[in-house]
Fold each of these.
Amino acid sequence: MKTRTYVTIVVLAVFAVGCEEAIPIGPDPIEIDVEVNTTVINDHDDHSGDKGDDDSDSQNRRPVLIIPPDQTNDAGDQVSLLVRCVDPDEDDTVTFSASGLPRGLQQDSGTGLISGEITSSSADSSPFSPSLTCSDGRASDSDVFRWIVNA
Ligand SMILES: [Ca+2]
């Protein structure tokens, strides 16, 4: 008889504590934890989404100008020098511009071809340091080379 009574009291005590205190308090902290985790995950997604939009512009790769080797010509020479520019982005079209070319020469902005007849007076200003630029409209590459014109 003593043993039965003891067991019954212990079981009732645990049951009462479990019902009145453990159950009402228990679920709340768990729900809060879940919400916090969910919020953190959503923030992450939003940020990477923003970065993705920015990257679509910043992912443009710069065209690379292939600067010609130094040139030597005589005044009066007919020149035809093709400058190349490589853009890793297949769909990008590059345009060329040049400054400081020997007089009489110009560069085709679409093809990069430098052509013309070097004027006789160019020898007086030799050597030249032409600056070439190619651009895909968002990024560009420039370089300088040397051009000697002999009289
Ligand atoms: Ca590009």
Amino acid sequence: MSLTQRAHKLIRQHFQDPSIPRDLAVDATCGNGNDTEFLSRLNFRQVVGFEIQEDAIIRTRMRMDELGVTNVGLILDGHESLGRHIAGKIDCVMFNLGYLPGGDENLTTHAVTTLVALKYATEKLSDTGIISLLCYPGHPAGMQETKTLQRWLKTLGKQFKIQAKMSRNRHEATPILYAITRKKQQPEDDDTIKFASQDESRSLHTIDPVDEETI
Ligand SMILES: C[S@@+](CC[C@H](N)C(=O)[O-])C[C@H]1O[C@@H](n2cnc3c(N)ncnc32)[C@H](O)[C@@H]1O
């Protein structure tokens, strides 16, 4: 299973609980619209997609129209301007970073702008919300971005839980999927995100922001 599929699985499982609101979901990097479509099918009241490439926005719009999807709004703007477009709480944010496979590799996400968006998304994350963050350190901008985001994740307050998922044959360039959720107030609650098989959960780590060794 690819990490993109795992991101979908993670989010699907998170929202299995019918008491968790599905008001607003954001696809921070629309691209070809795979994640946008996934979120729209999860029945969020509203899905908003950000993308800097007009072609990608047009393709995604056509795709949504063909599917008859009516809960998706697309914004031709960088996710760093999230705060200009969305003021309220967000239940789900997907960051599938990097560049479009087969597209212009120069049109990739960058550490500085991703960090602006991620900080805002974290601030606006609803109590029961989730952020998925898929990092690709296998190219120079992606490596710098991943390292910057990892440093920042460690500074996130204790009220957040961060889990990392990566393939077993891990090396410096291996993509990493992070899940960010708010910790529940009751300390006795088991708020671990569970994966379907035990095998998968073995490669899932919780990052203690004060423990540099656990990433
Ligand atoms: C890996 S692709 C996303 C794949 C997409 N989620 C899908 O399902 O097809 C990364 C996308 O991020 C876009 N991107 C780059 N910088 C961005 C920014 N600052 N804000 C929003 N999108 C950006 C790129 O144009 C590219 O389409």
